[in-house]
TrEMBL record:
<protein>
    <submittedName>
        <fullName>Chorismate mutase</fullName>
        <ecNumber>5.4.99.5</ecNumber>
    </submittedName>
</protein>
<dbReference type="GO" id="GO:0046417">
    <property type="term" value="P:chorismate metabolic process"/>
</dbReference>
<dbReference type="GO" id="GO:0004106">
    <property type="term" value="F:chorismate mutase activity"/>
</dbReference>
<dbReference type="Pfam" id="PF01817">
    <property type="entry name" value="CM_2"/>
</dbReference>
<dbReference type="InterPro" id="IPR036979">
    <property type="entry name" value="CM_dom_sf"/>
</dbReference>
<keyword id="KW-0413">Isomerase</keyword>
<feature type="domain" description="Chorismate mutase">
    <location>
        <begin position="3"/>
        <end position="84"/>
    </location>
</feature>
<dbReference type="InterPro" id="IPR002701">
    <property type="entry name" value="CM_II_prokaryot"/>
</dbReference>
<dbReference type="InterPro" id="IPR010958">
    <property type="entry name" value="Chorismate_mutase_highGC-bac"/>
</dbReference>
<dbReference type="InterPro" id="IPR036263">
    <property type="entry name" value="Chorismate_II_sf"/>
</dbReference>
Length: 84
């Protein structure tokens, strides 16, 4: 059975949309968990942001995804903690 290019593209786009929905859900979950960490850290007398931890996160994304991973990680950090 041969599929048309249009059908292949439509199927792939449907899969991309489903992946994007999952990614968005995971980002929202990450933001909620980060909020718990921040509130707990502040309540115990700490700072809202832990820069060493953020550097670990940046490194993890850079190592896994290359230079664009750093930008992605920065965006995730900004979403999770707001601008500093």
């Amino acid at each position: 059975m041969t599929t048309t290019p249009e059908a292949t593209i439509a199927d792939a786009r449907e899969r991309i949309d489903a992946l994007d929905d999952r990614i968005i859900g995971l980002i929202q979950e990450r933001m909620a968990v980060s909020s718990v960490v921040q509130r707990t850290r502040i309540a115990s007398g700490g700072r809202r942001v832990h820069l060493a931890r953020e550097m670990e996160i940046l490194g993890r994304y850079r190592d896994a995804l290359g230079r664009p991973g750093t930008s992605l990680a920065m965006t995730l950090l900004e979403l999770s903690r707001g601008r500093i």
